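RESIDUES AND SHAPES:
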Amino acid sequence: MSTEKNQQTMMFRVKAEEDIKVKDTLKHVYGALQEKGYNPIDQLVGYLLSGDPAYITSHKNSRQMIRKLERDEILEEMLSTYLSE
């Protein structure tokens, strides 16, 4: 006998990931890229377009921090902030 279970997809979010603030992460990554002598805007655009984390320095744990965010979340936050000004 086969019992059918609820086939709905459940959402699971780790509390630490929920607390990540896109704006704070971008500011952190921007500063780290600047400290290492990179053009932060060019590097962030390269990352957002390609998804390749090599565009982001590992300095100050920046690469790991930005990879915890979805690129669409970053773009959404940036566009939202830009249009609200």
User: Anything to note?
Assistant: The mean pLDDT is 86. The first helix runs from residue 15 to 18. The helical segments are 15-18, 22-35, 40-50, 62-67, 71-84.
